[in-house]
Design goal:
Radius of gyration: 33 Å
Helix content: 40-55%
Strand order of the largest sheet: 1-4-3-2
Low-confidence stretches: 202-208
Mean pLDDT: 84
Number of strands: 8
Largest sheet: 4 strands, antiparallel
Distance between the termini: 88 Å
Structural class: alpha+beta
Length: about 260
């Protein structure tokens, strides 16, 4: 599970440059101004400019607040019904929807990154949508550090769509029923499904044993420190108690001598 979680985190981290770029566009004062003005010609010109500046992007759309309700679904590069559903979610919740893949396995396959555009007061004025090609996730997985085994990045299905495999890597021979670990990929609708090889399982087992061994040594060391501290305090207490008793006896003996002298 630790290895699968690390792989899922690695994928999320590798997606960040594109996500951060879209977030930067959504904070751009020029974009905020254009969304407020809602001038179709100015928006189209700015979309074309931003598209050239975003590596790997196939489409850039600037959607003013409230414009989604009047849009109809179309064929890429037009916004599809799935794109519009993401935009409606973003507008209704004033936050970014998770990354999502659409029409996978088709020529119009793409992956959407949507971020809300907020003005200086924090009020939402629209959304920025950037779409990347269907190989976006596969290229991300290809660039990861090697992991012994087989992995897939999947987008689970829902009532309207079947689940799809967005990317895969490794030897499919390791894919066996019951041996996989499923981990969500942060910021997306996706899951990483990982089947470790025998070597990876053994390495993970040794790693876990090492962690537990270190934990046990630390626990024993702390126990020894507390035991020694207890013994030292106990001896000090006994010594102080003996001194106190001796002092009381001396006082009592002194009192008796004084009484006899009187």
């Amino acid at each position: 599970q630790t290895l699968a979680a690390n792989l899922a985190y690695d994928i999320a981290e590798r997606l960040q440059p594109s996500v951060v770029a879209v977030e930067s566009d959504a904070r751009d004062p020029q974009v905020i101004t254009a969304l407020k003005a809602d001038d179709p010609a100015a928006l189209a010109a700015l979309e074309a400019q931003l598209l050239k500046q975003l590596p790997g992007a196939l489409r850039m759309r600037l959607i003013p607040l409230g414009a989604v309700k009047d849009m109809d679904g179309g064929v890429f590069p037009k916004l599809s019904f799935a794109d519009l559903e993401m935009l409606r979610y973003g507008e209704a919740n004033a936050k970014a929807p998770p990354l999502e893949a659409h029409f996978f396995g088709m020529e119009t396959a793409h992956i959407d990154i949507i971020r809300p555009a907020l003005n200086a007061d924090g009020a939402m004025v629209g959304q920025v949508l950037a779409s990347f090609g269907g190989d976006f996730v596969q290229e991300t997985v290809k660039g990861m550090a090697g992991a012994s085994g087989y992995l897939e990045v999947r987008q689970p299905g829902d009532e309207q769509n079947q689940g799809v495999v967005l990317a895969k890597r490794g030897d499919v021979a390791w894919a066996r029923d019951g041996g996989e670990t499923v981990t969500p990929v942060f910021g997306t609708r996706w899951q990483l499904v990982f089947w470790p090889s025998a070597a990876a399982q053994e390495a993970l087992m040794w790693h876990q044993m090492l962690v537990w061994a270190v934990f046990a040594l630390v626990f024993l060391a702390l126990a020894a420190v507390f035991f020694l501290l207890h013994r030292t305090l106990h001896k000090a207490y006994q010594a102080d108690l003996a001194t106190f008793i001796e002092l009381v006896r001396d006082i009592q003996a002194g009192g008796r001598v004084s009484a006899m002298e009187r």
